[in-house]
Amino acid sequence: MEEWPRPLLGSESPRFSGPASFFRLPLRRAGLDIALFGVPFDGATTLRPGARLGPRALREASTLIRPRHGRSGLAPFDLCRVADAGDAPVRPFDIPATLASVEGFVAELCAGGAAPLMAGGDHLMSLPVLRGLARAGAAPPPPWGMVHLDAHSDTAESFLGARFTHGTPFRRAVEEGLLDPARVVQIGLRGGAYGPDDLGWARAAGITLLDMPAVEALGAAGLAARAREVVGAAPCWVSFDLDALDPAFAPGTGTPEWGGLTPREVLGVLDGLRGARVIGGDVVELSPPHDPAGVSALAGATVLFELLCLIAAARAG
User: Fold this and answer.
1) In this predicted model, what pLDDT tens digit does every residue of 65-116 receive, in sequence order?
2) Lower Cβ count inside 10 Å, N or C end of the chain?
3) What pLDDT does residue 1 have?
4) Using CA of residue 194, residue 200, residue 202, residue 208, what is the dihedral sign?
5) CATH topology for 22-315?
6) Is the pLDDT of residue 317 over 90?
């Protein structure tokens, strides 16, 4: 019988020793229920770069995460075969080639039924991951729902004439039939705008937009309940951009926006998603050069583990 992948525990070996991998898991690409992988690409950013270094920093920070969920008691590595599948191949100077290579990597990785959990990279990389999951023959097929925590909607038509940037992935995903806009909810939206109707397309498409006044009005439990109402019982993706958090908690991101979510609000929303049919997810836009104390990387690694637990619980039924 094939050995079940297990994380190396800090009680067995010091957490500062050995090669870095997600949650100190073995490296493996086959025979998995959940495949963790990095996409070290930031060629689609519009402000501060550095997210290409995100996967490496998330691996390092994840050594701080213990293998049992502290609030639910869930042990994801007992429920599912999970491993670090390495990094998808990227082409730093070529966005179309990177989109194609990441899609192919994910399609091959998920062909055996593994759920993808991606560490980015900029937010455009969510698009080829969704494409790859669809190409792998995920059941049920798209369109899927999505719970999206972010300061920005990422549904612009283009930026400086480019249709594929980290501000456009979910407009492309809706257009390509990967996401059902009626089952997409975006939480934590805030910041300035370029014009009076920056969110007009998202509203017209039927996406549920929950800005920071809605966050304050509903609270974490209310946000989670609204998200569950939107995505329903059908499969959904969970996407977390580090800039969803207020920059006081996560300065290491490319497009920070003041007045954002607190860590407790994020954890409360994710706790409320327990029981949803989460088929995969991502943590994106960590920029380690802007994270001198490592607090943003720790935030990202913590959310990565939260998503892992949600996916493991969904797969375990």
Assistant:
1) 999 999 999 999 999 999 999 999 999 999 999 999 999 999 999 999 999 9
2) N
3) 36
4) positive
5) Arginase; Chain A (3.40.800)
6) no
